[in-house]
Amino acid sequence: MKRIVLLIATNFAVIALLSVVASLLGIDQMLAQNGFNFFGTLVFAALFGFGGAFISLLISKPMAKWSTGAQVIDGSEGTTQYWLVDTVKKLADKAGIGMPEVAMYEGEPNAFATGAFRDESLVAVSTGLLQSMSREEVEAVLGHEIGHVANGDMVTLTLIQGVVNTFVIFLSRVIGYVVDRVILKNDKEQGIGFFVTVMVSQLVLGVFASMIVAWFSRRREFRADAASASLLGTPQPMVNALARLGGLQPGALPQNMAASGISASPGSWGALFSTHPPVEERIAALQARQ
User: Fold this and answer.
1) Final residue before a domain boundary, out of 117, 151, 185
2) What angle do CA 85, 147, 257 make, to 5 degrees?
3) Catalytic residues, which ones?
4) What are 40-70's pLDDT values in tens digits?
């Protein structure tokens, strides 16, 4: 709940910061003189920028179950399920978080954690992961996912996404207004130049925003690997699990969940847009802890 409050507070902080900076530089008055509603546009951008990210976070658990076909288990289904639930409980207790829901889904090797609240999360593993790894390696992967939950990574990533969304929406409209009024000399209502420029600006700025979000996602993977090492008392199981993953084709997750998996295929646009660091770098970071 504290992180949700932080997310909302950040929303207001972004609005306040941009308003103060614009006021000090005289940008808001300059735009206002030309008919641009600076504060109204900023509030609109923040509401939609953070609103979309916030709603996605709140519905992340049911959407994850629906999109992957993950089935929640309680341990009574069989020995493997019992071991999974018991292991997650031990790791969650050690990490100081509430017991997550545990789920399994059919697919190639992968695992993920999601949820809006630290004590009401979901940890899921694929059948391919269970079949490809030893129990010690699976435990390391579960420790990694518990690390994401304990670190509040889902909320923090939502916060980062909300901030960049706000800037993209707001700046694209400022650029659109300048092009429409200053360059195209349109002195009436918003013209076609405004709408075309806004769409193009959002696409271009969205590319840079994706790079920022991907960079943060890569950083949090290192922290979750380190969390697994701490929970298990040694980094070696996570090293072994990553080495195993490096030789496997990771199971694809829905696009909106790509950053949530234990691993992901390299991004088609290169390393700058990859949500996960190379396995070799993650292993090296863990080995440096030994």
Assistant:
1) 151
2) 85
3) 145
4) 777 788 888 878 888 888 888 898 899 889 9
pTM: predicted TM-score of the whole model, two decimal places: 0.81
Structure tokens at 224: 């979750």
Distance, CA of 212 to CA of 177 (rounded, Å): 25
Domain range enclosing 103:
61-151
Residues 77, 197 within the same domain: no
In angstroms, the CA 32 to CA 35 distance is: 5
Greatest pairwise CA separation for the chain in angstroms: 72
169-186 pLDDT per residue, tens: 888 888 888 888 777 777
Rounded mean pLDDT of 115-123? 90
The values of phi and psi at residue 25, to 5°, are -85, -5
Q: Which of 101, 133, 151 is the last residue of a domain?
A: 151
Residues near 281 by beta carbon (within 8 Å), at least 6 away in sequence: none
Q: Structurally, how many domains does the chain consist of?
A: 2
274: left (phi over 0), alpha (psi -120 to 50) or beta: beta
Give the pLDDT band of residue 247 (cuts 50, 70, 90): confident
Q: Taking 60 as the threshold, does the pLDDT of residue 7 lie above it?
A: no
For residue 105, give the 3-state DSSP assignment: strand
Residues 53 and 176 in one domain: yes
What are 187-206's pLDDT values in tens digits? 777 778 888 888 998 899 88
Please give the Cα distance from 188 to 258 (Å, whole number).
44
